[in-house]
Amino acid sequence: HDALPIPVLLSGNDALVRSQTGSGKTLAYAIPLVQSLQAIQPKIQRSDGPCAVVLVPTRELALQSFEAIQKLLKPFTWIVPGILMGGEKRKSEKARLRKGINILVTTPGRLLDHIKHTKSISFRRVQWFIIDEADRLLDLGFEKDVAAILNALNATQEKRQNVLLSATLTDGVSRLAGISLREPVNIQVTEAHVGEPTSEAGANEEVVCQGNAERDSDGYSIPEQLQQLIVLVPSKLRLVTLSAFILQKCKFEGPQKMMIFFSSCEAVEFHNNLFTKVLITHTAGGEAKPSPHEVQFLRLHGNMEQEARTKVFTEFSQSKAGVLLCTDVAARGLDLPQVTWIVQYSAPPSPAEYV
């Protein structure tokens, strides 16, 4: 359903794409990006360095986008994708940059770090600049970093195609669009069937494909298959209610994948320790006794080592059942397949966070 941005981007326009998280939007920019780079003659070489820079807010999202781009590049072996993100050794990243990376997927802090300290990084050949989850980048305080990266790109190569993707259109996102996009086409992607835009999408023209996805006045797009339920519970019964809900759904109703959002890393750790002690059947020796209906708990938050985060993310993506306890920072925008329940244990601070 993200077919709409593709023709607009293939035609060379800058674009502001409003699309809910996890809705295949990586492909919406990755397909035109790969399509245009593979057509370049003479063929792109490693030594050309970056031809595209994709900026994402978190390491998990960087991994997810990188993997999607990697799949698309299978037939075009001469184009080298690469990923830069905190948590990796800076030295090995420097070496990879020296060898040459054509499509660079990166978090802002890390890229800025290399712009300042890695001599071999050059943006002379950059033809695409993509800012994904722009609203999230701003929530995490990256506005100055993004502006600095834009300055570095503009210093060497003004002419390129810019794409900004965001689930919400806040003032900050509009500001960012103002400095990064030139006469952009505005595209609204919802879950519904996406037709071609009827008119030639000109500068600043709004192409709205409105399905029966609900949209509220503040401009959030909510997936239409999403059922939203709320349970009002006295605060001292919250923990008991959550535990009962996990057991009911995951132990008695068969395999389910559930994500539970907490407001802090400490809360994730506390509940993980508690649930693994209390909700899992233990043998006399205190060992957890794996039974076919046992609930598996995983945790994901920003204070974990990068290696552990990656491992959990992969494990939960691939498993058929389990409960992921996480903070919104670590999990926003991740496309985790077959999740049946999403529980917000602490009320999200804003509708934008919630969507």
Automatic annotation (TrEMBL):
EC number of this enzyme: 3.6.4.13
InterPro entries for this protein? DEAD/DEAH_box_helicase_dom (IPR011545), Helicase_ATP-bd (IPR014001), Helicase_C-like (IPR001650), P-loop_NTPase (IPR027417), RNA-helicase_DEAD-box_CS (IPR000629)
Keywords attached to this Swiss-Prot or TrEMBL record, sorted alphabetically, are: ATP-binding, Helicase, Hydrolase, Nucleotide-binding, RNA-binding
User: What is this enzyme's catalytic activity, as reactions?
Assistant: ATP + H2O = ADP + phosphate + H(+)
Domain annotation Helicase C-terminal: ranges? 225-355
Q: Which GO terms describe its molecular function?
A: ATP binding; hydrolase activity; RNA binding; RNA helicase activity
Domain Helicase ATP-binding positions: 6-187
Q: Which domain of life is it from?
A: Eukaryota
Record-linked PROSITE patterns: DEAD_ATP_HELICASE, HELICASE_ATP_BIND_1, HELICASE_CTER
**Protein function:** RNA helicase.
The free-text domain remark for this protein reads:
The Q motif is unique to and characteristic of the DEAD box family of RNA helicases and controls ATP binding and hydrolysis.
Instruction: Give the similarity note.
Output: Belongs to the DEAD box helicase family.
State what protein this is by name. Answer: ATP-dependent RNA helicase
